[in-house]
Amino acid sequence: MTHANLRFPASFVWGAATAAYQIEGAVREDGRTPSIWDTFSHTPGKVLGGDTGDVACDHFHRWRDDVRLMADLGIGAYRFSVSWPRVQPTGRGPAVQRGLDFYRALVDELLAHGITPMVTLYHWDLPQELESAFPSGSPAGGGWPERDTAYRFEEYAGIVAGALGDRVELWATLNEPWCSAFLGYGSGVHAPGRTDPEAALRAAHHLNLAHGLGARALRAALPTRARVGVCLNPSAVRPLTPSAADLDARRRIDALANRVFTGPMLRGTYDDDLLADTARITDWSFVRDRDLATARQPLDFLGINYYSPAVVSAAPHADGPRLDGHGAADHSPWPGADSVSFHRAPGELTAMDWPVDPTGLKDLLLEYTAQAPGVPLFVTENGAAYDDKPGAGGQVHDPDRIRYLHGHLTAVHEAILAGADVRGYFLWSLMDNFEWAYGYSKRFGAVYVDYETQERTPKSSAHWYAKVAASGELRAAEE
Ligand code: PNW
After folding, report:
1. Residues within the annotated binding site for substrate?
2. What is the percentage of the chain residues whose pLDDT exceeds 90?
3. Which of 116, 129, 267, 471 could form a disulfide with 77 if both were Cys (CB 3.0 to 4.6 A apart)?
4. For binding substrate, which residues are annotated in this chain's numbering (predicted)?
5. How many angstroms is it from 255 CA to the middle of ligand 1?
6. Among 24, 175, 307, 427, which residue has the most ligand 1 atoms within 8 Å of its CB, making it the best to mutate?
7. Which atom of ligand 1 is nearest to the CA of 22?
8. What is the pLDDT of residue 204?
9. Choice among 129, 146, 154, 381 that is catalytic
10. What is the model's pLDDT at position 319?
């Protein structure tokens, strides 16, 4: 059997991604104030090993070296996020110039090395002030369950666009609003750690509103060549069996994982089945007249973050750990669908215990090609954690990650051949970093980080990816 190499379009973007709280450190420098992730990581028991982002990869001081490293690896585009509390410490009012200067310098350095920047405005680090404020007198706190937070985001989007708009073309409003809403306010395994199903649904709505308001603010401030989108983590969700009951479980999770965001953002609606499934929890009276029209802004691209598929059935939870891929949470991140069971999809497991199955990525790219006709797609995150360790000589050999990436890039290529307009791929992540509730125990990087010395060592996957990026071609039978 002969294998042809897989050639990607010449304009295909080969990128890598990070997020501010996961890499920057320097949490008290230049007027930065705590975000909900600072508070959460400093709360005992919330993050594995008591890890925090206080130092992380010290990228705030090492950004020049990190850009050079990317250039050496032939990375064509870099997706990073702006730390809201570095730019607007209380989440409202005037911006801190030094905070903006950091990102302007970073962008200039990227451009000087021929690397295209993609800015994510919000990758989960809400200024703590906005969470602690009680705009509607809610005793539980503010944050995304409160409407005001969406207006604060609109203002923040305008500030960042004003500072970086002359040099950044690719803009994403939110990263994975599902995690912000349902892990942050539902299961509580992410900041701010609240466990209130109604608050989670309110948060989802106000994130939809924030996306719309933010996208509009970006367009008003940016030159017309700018491209504005959003990064979602749609769930590739499959029924355990073709039974009517399992198909219904699939429908419920599709509503709560996917359509709760794509409904407003792509179609300007919340689907009736989602409203019915959650009716015991909320009457959705916090949705105001124009909100859905606001959430539905024209998109220049849709960012898809993908790691692993989900398999669900209607049967109630069996005893034992939850298998929904979100840790052993006592509270469900699925309001109104507590009875749905999650099963392990077949396939090898990564260090996160997430099964490796590239067909989920191909399926999602084709599904969103159909759902958002004419909207270009980016894979804005894809990658895997493995137990990487430097060997003798200091090299880090990570053949499992190479196989993971090879499989998923093959799936992207198949999706393109089948008609998906995929413009680029951002590997998660450029380097090992603070993996949220798992702290530094999970390494997603193509570059190894020694947290004692902050030394960076490209793993063999980084060298492999550099070759793919340089040639625009995936070797057929990689081994
Ligand atoms: C995404 N889940 O996080 C984020 O965008 C990244 O910041 C993160 O490092 C990466 O994926 C790897 O985890 C997720 O539990 C965290 O379903 C948790 C879940 C999904 C995505």
Report:
1. 22, 123, 175, 307, 428, 435-436
2. 92
3. 116
4. 22, 123, 175, 307, 428, 435-436
5. 19
6. 307
7. 7
8. 99
9. 381
10. 47
Angstrom distance (rounded) from CA 450 to CA 440: 10
Residue for token pair 């009517």? 244
Residue nearest to atom 13 of ligand 1 (CA): 435
Least Cα distance to 14 among 460, 446, 456, 457 occurs for: 446
Q: What is the pLDDT of residue 1?
A: 45
Phi first, then psi, for residue 137 (nearest 5°) are: 75, 10
Give the number of other Cβ atoms within 10 Å of residue 235's Cβ. Answer: 22
Cα 176 to ligand 1 centre (Å): 8
Catalytic entry in 24, 176, 348, 367: 176
Q: What is the architecture of the domain spanning 6-474?
A: Alpha-Beta Barrel (3.20)
- Which ligand 1 atom is the nearest neighbour of the CA of 383? 12
305 lines ligand 1 (CB under 6 A): yes
So what's the pLDDT on residue 335?
95
**Beta-sheet pairing, 447-450 with 455-458:** antiparallel
381 is catalytic: yes
- Kindly state the greatest CA–CA separation across the chain: 68
Alpha carbon distances (Å) from 472 to 10, 74, 406, 407, 465 = 7, 11, 13, 15, 10
Based on its alpha-carbon atoms, the radius of gyration of the chain, rounded to whole angstroms, reads 21
Ranges of residues in the chain whose predicted pLDDT is under 70: 1-2, 137, 139-140, 316-329, 477-479
Predicted pLDDT of residue 134: 76
Question: d(Cα 452, Cα 459) in Å, to the nearest integer?
Answer: 18
